[in-house]
Amino acid sequence: MGRYTSKKTLGRRRRKLRVHKKVLGDAARPRLCVYRSLKHLSAQIIDDTSGVTLCSLTTASKEFAGQAAELKGKTAKSTLLGKLLAQKAKEKGITTIRFDRGGNNYHGRVRALAEAAREEGLEF
C-alpha cells in the first residue's frame, strides 16, 4: 500500500480481506469471486482448497462480447454475465457456491450479477 493510496481504495481493500477471511470455497461449495473495474466486470468460480479456477468469465472476453452487442449499460451487461457464468457452472456440475463480493458493496452491478446467477439456478 503506497502512500498515495486513497482512503476509498484502502477501505475497499480492508473490506475485501474481511470478506475473504470468512468466505472460503471448497470442492463442495466453490467461491464466486467478483472483480469490478470502472469499465468491466470479471467473475471466477474458485476452489480454494486446491487453488484452481473452475470457470471464469469477463465482460471484456470475446465470447461475451458477441452476445452483449445489443445491450446498453453496464448493469444490463452484468446481468447477462451472471446468467452466462451460471450456465457455465451448471455444465461443470456446480450448483451451490459461496459469494465473494470482493470488498464491493452489494449494490448495482455486483447485485445484478448475483441475482442473475440465482435466477439461473446457482444457490448461495
Account of the protein in words:
- The chain has 124 residues and is an alpha+beta fold.
- The chain has a single domain (7-119), classed as Nucleotidyltransferase, domain 5 (2-Layer Sandwich).
- The chain contains 4 helices and 4 strands.
- The chain has helices spanning 7-22, 62-67, 74-91, 109-119; strands at residues 31-36, 41-47, 52-58, 98-100.
- It has a 4-stranded mixed β-sheet with strand order 3-2-1-4, with helices on one face.
- A hairpin with a 4-residue loop joins β2 (41-47) and β3.
- α3 (74-91) packs parallel to α4 (109-119).
- It is globular.
Any idea what the shape is?
globular
Distance between the termini: 32 Å
**Portion of residues within helices:** 40-55%
* Major sheet details: 4 strands, mixed
Q: Kindly provide the radius of gyration, computed on alpha-carbon positions and rounded to a whole number of angstroms.
A: 15 Å
Ranges where pLDDT stays below 50 over 5 or more residues in a row are none
In CATH's first tier, which class applies? Alpha Beta
Task: Give the helix/strand class.
Answer: alpha+beta
Strand content: 15-25%
Q: Assign the CATH architecture.
A: 2-Layer Sandwich
List keywords for this structure.
single chain; 124 residues; alpha+beta; Nucleotidyltransferase, domain 5; 4-stranded mixed beta sheet; 4 helices; globular
